[in-house]
Amino acid sequence: MGTIEFKDNKRSPESRQSWSTDFCEPHLNLLAHAQALEIGIGSRCGGHGVCGGDKVRVWVRLDDVKPGLEALSPITDQEREHLSAEELDSGYRLACQCYPNRSDLKLRVDASVTP
């Protein structure tokens, strides 16, 4: 069974809060997973990739990375519009555009969280 842990990156590392799902659903984007936990992560456009406000950094557990099988959905045109190549290379995504590809993943998502 997969999990997604959201960590608040607005605070110092010692005082960061975190929230975790006990599921990782491929048909739900990361924004929907955050909404299931009733935390806001900055989307102002309703999850359509227009505002770029839900920028998050996604960490995939190395055990979950398998050759030829990506852990996350492909980068979208909306993400390329709002994120630099350097940010994309560093694991930044738009939560509304990023989907887990499998239900057995364990992901950590660093975000500006509003509980």
Short description:
By secondary structure, this protein is an alpha+beta fold. The chain has helices at residues 30-36, 77-82, 85-89, and strands at residues 3-8, 18-20, 55-60, 92-94, 106-111. It has a five-stranded mixed sheet.
Q: Can you walk through the features of this model?
A:
The chain is α+β, with helices and mostly antiparallel strands and 115 residues long. It has one domain (3-111): Ubiquitin-like (UB roll), CATH 3.10.20.30. The chain has helices at residues 30-36, 77-82, 85-89, and strands at 3-8, 18-20, 55-60, 92-94, 106-111. A 5-stranded mixed beta sheet has the order 2-1-5-3-4. The protein starts with a strand and ends with a strand.
Record keyword descriptors for this entry.
115 residues; Ubiquitin-like (UB roll); five-stranded mixed beta sheet; globular
Q: Report how far apart the termini are.
A: 25 Å
Order of helices and strands: EEHEHHEE
* Low confidence ranges: none
How many H/I helices?
3
Tell me the domain tally.
1
Q: Calculate the mean pLDDT score and round it.
A: 90
Helix share of residues?
A: 10-25%
Strand order of the largest sheet: 2-1-5-3-4
Could you tell me the CATH topology label: Ubiquitin-like (UB roll)
Largest sheet at a glance? 5 strands, mixed
Outline: globular
CATH architecture: Roll
CATH superfamily, please?
Beta-grasp domain
Given the helix and strand composition, which structural class is it? alpha+beta
Number of extended strands:
5
